[in-house]
Specification:
This protein is mainly β. It contains 2 helices and 8 strands, in the order H-H-E-E-E-E-E-E-E-E.
Amino acid sequence: MLSRIERGLVSPSVESLDRIASGLGVPVSRFFSDQTTRTDFSHVPAGRGILVDRVGAVAGYRYELLGHQLSGNLFVEPYLVTLLPDAQPYVTFQHPGIKFVHVVSGRVSYRYGAKVVKLAPGDSLQFDATALHGIEAIEEEPVSYLSVVFTLRD
């Protein structure tokens, strides 16, 4: 049967596709994705990210774009955020999507809604970015962190 499906002699039922996918250990959706034509690829050598002047950016927060995704329905924004010497705490960031934060250097108190957590190098957070969030206190400088926002395209 597999040989006949591969040669296009028969069209498998949904039940057959489900059994084949299960046997291969992959989701059924794998059979319908267009992996051969996907060419999204982004390589940014160390220190070569694009400095971005974000609309409404907080003073003292430097954003370096580390990659991009041009196709698909998921928009991904990976930034290396560096707090400059004049940076002040800011806890009213709020935007659509899911946010992932990973501290590279420094120590901060990070607010998410009513919760505050202490973050040090190597610590990570992931949360719904529609809640108010941001750095409540800078405990030890210099501070830099990876910030990745995932949103669905319209």
